[in-house]
Every structure is written in structure tokens, then in C-alpha cells.
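Write out the 3D structure for:
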Amino acid sequence: MILRELLVIAAGFVVANNNPKFCQAFSTKSLSAKTTSSKTILRMSTSETESKPAKKERYVPKWKKKATLAETIGKDLNPQDKGLVGSVPITFQQGVGENATRIETTAIPGQSLKLVASQAGQFIKYGCGKGECGTCEALCNGKYLRPCIDTVPVDLTPDPTTGEYAPLVIQVKGTKAKVVSSGKFFTVKSFILGFWNNLLGMAGFVRDRRAARKNWEERIKNEEDILKLTMEKKRKKREAAEKAAAENK
């Protein structure tokens, strides 16, 4: 559009040199065209401003976490009223000090600690479920155990006077804060964590590469040593054969 107007103006200048009346008419026409073009651009700008969408409000999740029966009805009930049976008192403790949460229950000797924690409403984060990763590792009376595979000890000795077992206090790992909303897909924190994750990956790649190179050099050195020993053994065997052949002659 701009190129066409420039061509028209250039042609007008050429004609104006020979016809003054045409020059006056051309100037009036060009001015009206520029005015019309300006009005069109202004109208387009106004329409773009009017059609610009309003800023979106922050996302509000439509779901809310509801309390479970264990958190409402079973919160103030003792293990017997909950229907749990057992002679070994167990206390699951999460946290330290005044902020620690404690859940008391009873269990049977030999019963799975994972089942006991589930019945008592104690959340424990598990990983492999085979006792190898250590995600669920907990501390019980100074000893570390893994609830995913360990059971309530069967070699406990009851008190001779009361006949009751000493309580077992199991210190479980604390968990992170619960998510209260679905959040955003992209945030400043996600970009920072992504950059940090990539940086750690690059550092790990360099570390593993150095270790692999060292391992490769050691392997090559061992192969060279084996080759030298083999050649030395062959040489001695050949010399012994030549010596024996010379003696037989």
C-alpha cells in the first residue's frame, strides 16, 4: 500500500512539471487519501483496543480436600473402640517437640508394621516396597527399621508385675506441606528449579564421564599387563622347546 502511494506521488511530480492545474488537483486528492488512510488506521487501532481480552483472574481450584472418617469420628477414639486388637502398644510419632503429632494404637506380635500404620491412620511414604530404597525408614527405640517389610517384634518381654508390654515409639519421617491448589503450569520457581536440575545433570554427566575414563584407562592397562605376561610365557615356552630340541640332537 505504501509502495503504491509512493509510485502515485512520483508520477504526480512528473506530470506536475508539465501541467500546473493537474498538480493542484493531485495535491488535493493525495491529501484526502492520506486523511482517509489515517482514519482507517485509527479505526483499526481502536477496534484492536476494544477487542483485547481482559486479564484472566487467578485460577481457583474447584475441588477441596474433605476430612476422612479417621480425622473426624475416629480422632478421639481409643484403639479398642476402633476395633483394633493387640497387646503391644505402639505410638507413631511424626515431628519433634511441641509440633510433633502422635497416634496411639495396639498391635499383635508379628503383625506387619505397614498394616498397623494403615489401620491407625498414620501416613508413611513408601518407595520400592521391598526394604531396599529406605524411603519408609523409621526409628523405633533407637533402632532403624523399614515398615514396608518389618513386623512387630515377637521377642518382647512383658512386665512381670503388670503383664503388659512396654510401648513401642516409632519415629516416622515428616512429609512436605500438602498441596492446597493445583497451581500453575509455568512459574518462576519452576524455571529456576528446571535450570538447577539441568545444572546438576551436567555436573553429574561430567563426574560420570571422568569416572568412566578412569575405568577405561585401568582396563586398558590391565589388558596390556595381561598381554605382556602372555608374551613372556610364550617366549619361555618357545625357549624351553628349542633347548629340548638342541639336547636331543
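Helices lie at 2-16, 20-51, 69-72, 79-82, 113-120, 188-248.
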